[in-house]
UniProtKB/TrEMBL annotation:
One of its GO terms (cellular component) is membrane. It comes from Moniliophthora roreri. Its cofactor is heme. Belongs to the cytochrome P450 family. It is found in: Membrane. The keyword S-adenosyl-L-methionine does not apply. Keywords: Heme, Iron, Membrane, Metal-binding, Monooxygenase, Oxidoreductase, Transmembrane, Transmembrane helix. Pathway: Secondary metabolite biosynthesis; terpenoid biosynthesis. Pfam families: p450. Heme binds at residue 437. This is Cytochrome P450. It comes from the Eukaryota. The keyword tRNA processing does not apply. GO terms for molecular function: heme binding; iron ion binding; monooxygenase activity; oxidoreductase activity, acting on paired donors, with incorporation or reduction of molecular oxygen.
């Protein structure tokens, strides 16, 4: 027993010593910036599967501790002492712009990190590199090909298909026959809508609200290779026009435009099949899940803010009346856009932006007016040294609740955005800088069309359980559900037909 006890003691001593050394090295990496010292990083195993407690920072740490993390300053450090890399966290917009632009002294200073290494982009690069999981010249190549595929013709098709899908939805079942329709969870219809729109407008596949939608992810890789080869063949045969003359509606879905844009480039800028498929996967993730979640959250917030819903409804009637809405109405429906992006502010699909310093550099953070109003007026900045290899995490939940930028940040208030253009970069829910979401207008066109038509015909109320209060409904439904992307928990609502609908 003495020998076994001695061995156990030695193992414990080695473990404790290694933890102390790791903590010491981590503190040096972040220049001893105050913050949390948990055993594990929140984005790696086992921290990601453990709940946020006093001793652990889980995946939802930055929501659970949103009132405490930035009380003293707009940045902090997180240094795990068992597993994971040390990181600097911030809820400051200037930091977000610096790490997203990534161009200061000599090229890209921040390399994109999505919970993976430079050689293992395993989460968003399931089939190869893509726009989100590439850096430097590779990123510019992807952006050069994908940019032209997102254009007004595509957005018009998205609008028209969304309008068609809404009409199909309300022509069948309870929607056609009843005055009240209960939907729980609401995501059951927003996910279906987003999937149909992505399938039809993204990839030119047949899709209908009435037709049963099946999950065919297991066949997606083979299917996409066949689809890409088919579109290449049609392009070479002239069945799909070139990007300079492609006016045919059949050629204006996103996949056709993406393949065409790649074919139009010179050899070194063309994307291979794996790169095209990887970007398709990225669109499936960003274009389906995040749009569906954001739509559900918008209806949820409107359900418990009837005065806001009434204002949006009146705006719709004043702007488009009861006519068939057209894509040209999009720019006029600024209050509907505002309702959508305010929900995205509170529950952003991309809840963190993680970047890694490619070399020693600095971050400059404007003085926080809470602690130095004079310094803030004079434009003073704090300089934070960042060592090569250090992760910088932009906390989008914290940024969107930062009182520096938002008055009463926990309040759902679409009027924040009424006087801001629909496509303004002042809204950071789709990221910031040159790497901002390329599909932003695809998502907002779909959302605005659907919200406009549904809110014009139906009043939205929270679907309360027996004995449940509205505040309890808020606490159950309007809370984040964390995964690779962020969405609201299952939202139950009641749609009540308006008299004139």
């Amino acid at each position: 027993m003495d020998g076994l006890s001695g061995l156990l003691f030695a193992l414990v001593a080695v473990f404790v010593t290694s933890c102390v050394i790791k903590l010491f090295n981590g503190l040096q990496t972040v220049n001893h910036i105050p913050g949390y010292r948990p055993p594990f990083t929140p984005f790696g195993f086992p921290g990601v599967v453990l709940p946020t407690r006093w001793w652990n920072t889980g995946l939802d740490m930055h929501f659970v501790r949103r009132y405490d993390m930035y009380k003293e300053r707009e940045y902090m450090s997180l240094v795990p002492f068992i597993s994971g890399k040390p990181a600097i966290w911030s809820n400051n917009l200037d930091v977000a712009k610096q790490v997203e632009a990534g161009v200061w002294h000599c090229g890209m200073l921040f390399q994109l990190q999505i919970g993976c290494t430079q050689s293992d982009d395993s989460k968003t690069s399931l089939w190869g590199t893509n726009l989100a999981a590439s850096n430097g010249e590779a990123w510019r190549k992807h952006r050069r090909v994908m940019g032209p595929a997102f254009n007004v013709k595509l957005y018009r098709i998205v609008w028209e298909k969304t309008r068609e899908i809404y009409k199909e939805m309300v022509s069948e079942g309870e929607w056609a026959t009843k005055r009240e329709v209960d939907v729980d969870p609401l995501q059951s219809i927003t996910y279906k809508l987003a999937l149909i729109i992505l399938g039809t407008c993204g990839f030119g596949l047949p899709g209908s609200w009435i037709k049963q939608t099946h999950d065919a992810h297991y066949q997606l890789n083979l299917f996409m290779k066949e689809q890409i080869e088919l579109r290449r063949s049609r392009i070479s045969d002239g069945q799909i026009g070139s990007s300079s003359e492609g006016d045919k509606a059949a050629g204006n879905n996103l996949l056709n435009l993406l393949v065409q844009a790649s074919e139009d480039e010179e050899g070194k800028y063309q994307l291979n099949d794996d790169e095209l498929i990887s970007n398709v996967f990225l669109l499936l993730l960003a274009g389906h899940e995040t749009t569906a979640n954001a739509l559900a959250a918008t209806f949820g917030y409107l359900a418990v803010n009837p005065h806001v819903q009434q204002e949006i409804y009146q705006h719709i009637i004043d702007t488009v009346g009861h006519k068939d809405i057209e894509f040209e109405d999009y720019a006029k429906l600024n209050k509907v856009v505002s309702a959508f992006i305010e929900a995205v502010r509170l529950i952003p699909g991309g809840h963190v932006l993680i970047r890694e310093a490619a070399e020693d550099t600095i971050l400059e953070i404007p003085t926080d007016p809470r602690f130095d109003s004079e310094g803030a007026k004079l434009g003073r900045k704090q300089t934070i040294p960042v060592k090569k290899g250090t992760e910088v995490v932009v906390d989008m939940i914290g940024l969107h609740r930062n009182p520096r930028y938002f008055e009463d940040p926990e309040e759902y208030r679409p009027s924040r955005w009424y006087d801001i253009p629909n496509d303004s970069e002042l809204f950071t829910g789709f990221s910031v800088g040159p790497r901002a979401c390329i599909g932003r207008k695809f998502a907002t066109a779909e959302a605005v069309c659907y919200l406009t038509m549904l809110l014009r015909d139906w009043d939205v109320k929270p679907l309360l359980r027996s004995g449940e209060t509205e505040n309890e409904w808020r606490g159950r439904c309007l809370v984040p559900n964390f995964s690779l992307t962020l969405g609201a928990a299952n939202i139950g609502v009641k749609f009540i037909r308006r008299p004139q609908a």
